[in-house]
Amino acid sequence: MEYGIMGSVPAEFGKTTRIVFALEGARLPAGPSGPVAFSPTGSFGPHKKSNGSTPPPSSAGSKAAGQQAGQQAGQQAGQQAGQQAGQQAGQQAGQQAGQQAGQQAGQQAGQQAGQQAGQQAGQQAGQQAGQQAGQQAGQQAGQQAGQQAGQQAGQQAGQQAGMGSSSGSGSGSCSGGQCKSCGKSGSSSSSKCESCGAPKPKANSEFMGIQSEAKRVAFVLDFSQSMFGPVGGANPKLDHMLLELKRSINRMPSDQDFFIIFFDDQELPMQPERLMPASFSNKGKYFTWVDVASVGPDARGGTDPATALEKTLVTVQPDAIFLLTDGGFDEKKAIRVIQQFNSAKKTQINTICFYDAENEQVMQFIAKENGGTYRFIGPLNP
Any idea which fold 202-377 has? Predict the structure, then answer.
């Protein structure tokens, strides 16, 4: 009978019992009930019979296996912990980066939107302010220009009225026109004919102090070189004539008609070549045309009113003409045109010698033969 023991031998075993000492885990021969294995504490028991399989590993092998298992478990645990930590760190970093990117994008978008809104608001405010300022400036300029023009026109009218009375008496002319009752001329300041006492009709038109009851009026005006001052200098004569022209038309009510034609050795009529109502818009339109025409070429021709008179009498056919010139012209040619195209005396022709009385006798004759009034207008007082 064989036993494997670790420590002391129990007393019940006799001398005949063969004792086999072996280390822990050693293979023992079988006893009555199989091999006996003793624990390190001295306990013992039957040892299971071997079935031919690989014997249990030694303690060194067990350590090596444990180390491998521990390493594998540690690696897996480390990998899992590392993965979790990496995931958490990545999530946090991604969130932070996303927040920062979102904040930056929001700030940029807000700045751009604010700049655009500010620019638009500034442009609109600037446009509105500019329009308002322009309107105010235009109104003020218009008021000032109107006041100045009115003052100048009033002063010139007063001066011309004073000069007209003296020049009329000195030259034997009259500014009142011919009386339809007796055919004699009288003063324009009187409401009755000084010769026969017949009442005078109410004047509808007035130019250079000459009044007319005509409602369809044409202005035939000298635009020759002598009406202009030196190149680049002042034009007091021309400015005087144009101021009186505008003043005369501006006084017309809207139911009157007017026509303007300038002449030197050719004619320059307004367009269209017909009488136009004295409406507010027409006055402004043709005042502008007059201003543009007065800044024409520096070199102009001589004085020849014949073609301008012919166009006015034949094409326009007004009730009255105001003919103004500042110098001599071919009087025979002009008289022949008038006698040919106004033989029925349907158009009254009023004449003005302007700053120069060289052709005064011819102008007086034309006015007398065509039911009009002659007048000399001298330079304005400085």
Answer: Rossmann fold (3.40.50)
